[in-house]
Sequence to fold (494 residues):
Amino acid sequence: MPDQDTTGGKLQTGSAGPMPHPLRGLSAKLLWLTVAFVMLAEVLIFVPSIAGMRLRWLQDRLSTAAAAGVVIDGLQPLELPRAVQDDALMATGTKAIVLRKDGTSRLLAVDDMPHEVDAKFDLTDVQPIEAIRDALYALVFGGDRLLRVYGPVGNSDVVIELVLQENSLRNAMLVYARNVFAVSLVISLITALLIFLAINRMMIRPMRRLTRSMQSFAENPEDPARILRAEPGRDELAVAGRHLADMQGQLQRTLKQQKNLANLGLAVSKINHDMRNILASAQLMSDRLVGVDDPMVKSFAPKLLRTIDRAVGYTTEVLAYGQASEAEPRRRLFRLVTLAQEVRDILALDPDGGIEFVELIAPDLEVDADSEQLFRVIHNICRNASQALITMGPDDPQTVRRITLSAQRIGAVVSIAIDDTGPGMPRKARENLFAAFRGAVRSGGTGLGLAIARELVLAHGGTIALVEKPGPGTLFRIEIPDRPVALRDWRVRA
Fold:
């Protein structure tokens, strides 16, 4: 897949190169492969075929000689004239014709009878392997041998025997092989052309269409018109086309999100610089409030200072999301009820708004975690719950609007539950629950809150999940395990 440039929104095609010419691409390879395979199949057919042709040629000579031999045998005890013998030898293409009958052999016709022959063949019962071997030898190495061939005449006990030169047989075999090769070549070309046209229409064209779509999309992935228009069908290429179209659409949306993230990061970095200066000034002024001798100011000043300190810390780490990971948790044991009270104070729920905040946490329950990071997790979820309850409106028939924060320790794990009686979470938000910029519940939200909360919980080795509940509302459960204790440290404390 081409490399992705997240800054410019372009895909680098690298050295992929242009679309190959049809005569140099898969079409040409398919054409020549088809020709080669058809020719290979013809070769496999040719081997037994040439063996059969050789046996038929020899059998025809035996049949012709047998017909002449029966006539000559009926002329006993007369001897054939030399001219008649020459005509018989010329008709059969042999040097000698011998007839074996009733245990005796009779030389019917002869022309310069040799003393010995180079090979002899019995056509009575020829095995296929033997026939193929003899045919290939004759075709490749034969031509100059003197052969002795014999076989029965029909179903009788009479055996006809011939002595002949192999050159005429080999010439006939070469003519046969040439004709077979020519016919095979024509058949292979016609077959290859038909297969080429069929497969080119069914496979090569759709594949070239997919390739052109990928090349065009890589040139400008932000253009919606570059997305492949999938064609209907049930074959593999049609399914691949639909998957490619879906992938291109998803990649286009991802590139758009990344471009928005880059723009957002630039804007946030600018805002972050000015916000730090403003918060620094507010921090200096809030420090002076500590010295004011007013009971009301003294009660609110520490909370205000903690709030501004958190805001300064957030501006320092506002760009942490999207990097490799959040800062490592600085874990320590602290009482969870204190953190819950801080969350309630920061939410600043109006008592007249009808929203209750209930804490069901034992005063001595301690959790081993980073207090600031756990505060961000619980505060994000509780803030989402309060905003959902506010959107219900005062005239909503739901009379009870409540956020319940509860916790309990089970062994080395602290389980924290955040439950509300709001309208619940929409289906779209459930499908993209912890996805940044996709899991927003309310209009205008970014969905970063739950994504950051999940990352912080995972950094503690814990889990966060949306729990199904029978009634209305939303229930999140967070589980934070204690840090494992090294055996050496435990022995030192013990």
